[in-house]
Design goal:
The chain is of the alpha/beta class. The chain is 36% helix and 28% strand.
C-alpha cells in the first residue's frame, strides 16, 4: 500500500470514529509512519484518535504531534484539576485501600501509588483522562500483589477451566516476579485474547508474555 492510499484510509477511519472530532486533525504519511498534527478539544479524543490510527492496516508507527486545545481557550487551574481528580477516583475507581497520589503540572496529571490488580491501575488512568482541562496522563501506579506465584497460576488455570471455550490443559501458565508466561496452542485469535485477559485479571500480575500459538 502506498503512502497516499494509507493517508486516505487513516482520514476515513478518523472521520468514521464517533469519539473523535477530526475537523482540526492533520494527517501525513511517510513510509508507513503516520504523523498526526493539529488539535482536539480534550485528552480523551487524542487517545481515541491514536487508537483509530492504530487500527488502520499498513500503519507502521505513529508520530503524535497533536495538541489539546479547549473550547473557547478556557483555562483550568492545576489545583482545580487535582481536586476533581481526587474526588473522581474516590467515587468511581475500584482502588485498593491505599490512596493514589495525584500531581498536576500545566494540565498534565501524574498518578503514583500501589494497587493489587492491573485493572485498578487502568481504571484510575482511564477515569482522570476524561476530566475537563487535562492535557495528558502519566500512569506510574505500580501493581504490588499480595498473592503468591502459585496463587496466580491456580487462579488463571481455574478461570480457563470455567470457560467452556477452552481445553484447559492446552495452555500452560507460569509466573515469576508478577510476570505471567502463557504457552500452548488454541484454535483462534479470540481464544488467545481471552486467555490473555484471564491472565491480566489475576491479582498482582504486572506483565503477560503470551507465547500461545494458533492452529
Amino acid at each position: 500500500m502506498n503512502d497516499k492510499t494509507l493517508r486516505q484510509n487513516i482520514i476515513d477511519e478518523l472521520n468514521w470514529t464517533p469519539a473523535v472530532d477530526a475537523a482540526h486533525v492533520g494527517v501525513a504519511v511517510n513510509n508507513g509512519v503516520a504523523t498526526l498534527s493539529g488539535h482536539v478539544p480534550n485528552y480523551s479524543q487524542l487517545i481515541a484518535a491514536e487508537a483509530a490510527v492504530r487500527r488502520v492496516k499498513g500503519v507502521q508507527a505513529i508520530a503524535q504531534e497533536m495538541e489539546v486545545q479547549f473550547f473557547g481557550d478556557v483555562t483550568h487551574s492545576d489545583d482545580d484539576i487535582a481536586s476533581r481528580a481526587v474526588t473522581l477516583l474516590k467515587w468511581t475507581s475500584p482502588l485498593s485501600e491505599k490512596p493514589i497520589d495525584i500531581k498536576v503540572a500545566k494540565g498534565w496529571i501524574t498518578l503514583t501509588g500501589e494497587v493489587e490488580w492491573q485493572f485498578q491501575r487502568h481504571a484510575a488512568g482511564d477515569n482522570v483522562r476524561d476530566l475537563i482541562g487535562v492535557k495528558g496522563v502519566s500512569n506510574l501506579i505500580t501493581v504490588k500483589p499480595r498473592a503468591t506465584a502459585g496463587d496466580v497460576v491456580r487462579g488463571i488455570e481455574d478461570a480457563l477451566k470455567r470457560d467452556a471455550r477452552y481445553e484447559a490443559d492446552r495452555i500452560k501458565v507460569s509466573v515469576e516476579n508478577g510476570k505471567v508466561r502463557l504457552d500452548g496452542k488454541v484454535h483462534s485469535w479470540h481464544e488467545r485474547a481471552a486467555a490473555e485477559r484471564a491472565a491480566w485479571a489475576s491479582p498482582g500480575v504486572r506483565a503477560v508474555d503470551d507465547h500461545v500459538l494458533i492452529g
